[in-house]
Amino acid sequence: MTQILIVDDEEKLRHLLSMMLERKGIKTHKAIHGANALEMLENNSYDLIISDIKMPVMDGRQLISKMREKNILTPVIFITAFATVESAVEMMQQGACDYITKPFDSVKIYLAVEKAINLSRLITENQEMKQALSGAEKSKNLIYKSKAMQDVVALADNVATVDTAVLILGESGTGKEVLANYIHNKSTRCDKRFVAVNCAAISSNLVESELFGYEKGAFTGAAARTRGRFEFSDSGTLFLDEIGDMPLDSQGKLLRALQEKKLQRVGGNEEIPVDVRVICATNQNLGQMVMNKKFRQDLYYRINVFPIEIPPLRLRKEDIVPLAKHIITTFSFGAEHQLSEDACAKLMEYPWPGNVRELANVLERCLILTRDTQKITSQTLSFLQVAQPASPAQHTVIRLPSSGIPLQQVQMSLVKQALDKSGNNQTYAAKLLGISRSKFRVLLKNMEPDQ
Fold first, then answer.
1. Mean pLDDT by 10 residues, the chain (451 residues)
2. Do residue 168 and residue 274 come from a single domain?
3. pTM of full prediction above 0.70
4. Domain tally for the chain?
5. What is the 3-state secondary structure (H, E, C) of the chain?
6. Pair 112, 166 in one domain
């Protein structure tokens, strides 16, 4: 939802602007002067600021000057009681993107806001592009030593220079997004955007608007036309992580976009051509999901042209120490830290159910614990406990008390304990409970508050 900060010392004007904007589904916040607004800007982000010029404590000109000093690039619309060519030029020189003269009507407000919101999106996209380009060099090289990863990288190098659809398979935390970024940076699209979307993190009713964008007025809160991830990654690479969690009805629309290389925004009729390379990833068995009618067969064939499977960390132990040493250097407070030989041995013994992600979390904890000594030893890693999967041959007898026991609470407790012991790896947690991953996901779903 669009967020706008209104800055004015007059309560009536703040209230009037807020009512006008919230009728259009825009969320508004209010500040009584520039200093108040600056404090809010340091702790929150907004799409736009509408500010009066003359205010006590800190006026509009001082506010925008302070914003530029702190590199806060949020667009500003000034409110003024008069407007001449000279005053308009002065306001633009101060850094305002537009101005509104008093008295104003709703039409003027909406037009100015729509124009400024589009500018805000361009600024955000530009910042994201700079961040992506600055981090691209770091993503070109993968850290590995094992033969298994050598084979993975060889496959990635082979497919990088052609626009073939790639499906990256592997457990959670193995580095699927890192490999996708590697393929992008080795491709002819390396100077364009790499856009990552986690399909599991998007609400099912927002998937289409997130991927394809939407037209103004398409639904409540759609205050302006918005590009989706496909358009945003045009000429570049779109990485769809956890593709197995995409709703079935959205899968059909994704398939059409991949086949036709065209899309329609939500609420629109115009067909928009897009040139995007799509790389998908999943930790699920899509073939089994197809058989269970939970994933479209035609989409599966479309994205599974060139599958690459990343082995879990426990099956490529030669990579653990090189990865650990590299991860340590990525932390600003870890540059001088060292890994002792016994620490390396301990890292090699652990099965890493959470894979590289768990390794990074463990090392971050170790760096904090050893800020004084700057040396990680096996003693530092004493909190690592190797969890043993439940054996089918083992029979645990739980005595039922005469007063009874709430079965659902017992299940919830066991699920939480399994997640804790497995580093939140669902596959390994399911093994600890002696059940399939799909059954474990059902138990997790039953634990959700809305169930």
1. 88 90 88 92 86 89 86 85 60 75 80 80 62 47 90 96 95 93 94 91 84 86 83 93 92 93 90 94 93 94 96 94 92 86 93 92 93 92 69 56 77 84 77 80 72 41
2. yes
3. no
4. 4
5. CCEEEEECCCHHHHHHHHHHHHCCCCEEEEECCHHHHHHHHHHCCCCEEEEECCCCCCCHHHHHHHHHHCCCCCCEEEEECCCCHHHHHHHHHHCCCEEEECCCCHHHHHHHHHHHHHHHHHHHHHHHHHHHHHHHHHHCCCCCCCHHHHHHHHHHHHHHCCCCCEEEECCCCCCHHHHHHHHHHHCCCCCCCEEEEEHHHCCCCCHHHHHHCECCCCCCCCCCCECCHHHHCCCCEEEEECHHHCCHHHHHHHHHHHHHCEECCECCCCCEECCCEEEEEECCCHHHHHHCCCCCHHHHHHHCCEEEECCCHHHCHHHHHHHHHHHHHCCCCCCCCEECHHHHHHHHHCCCCCHHHHHHHHHHHHHHHCCCCCEECCCCCCCCCCCCCCCCCCCCCCCCCCCCCCHHHHHHHHHHHHHHHCCCCHHHHHHHCCCCHHHHHHHHHHCCCCC
6. no
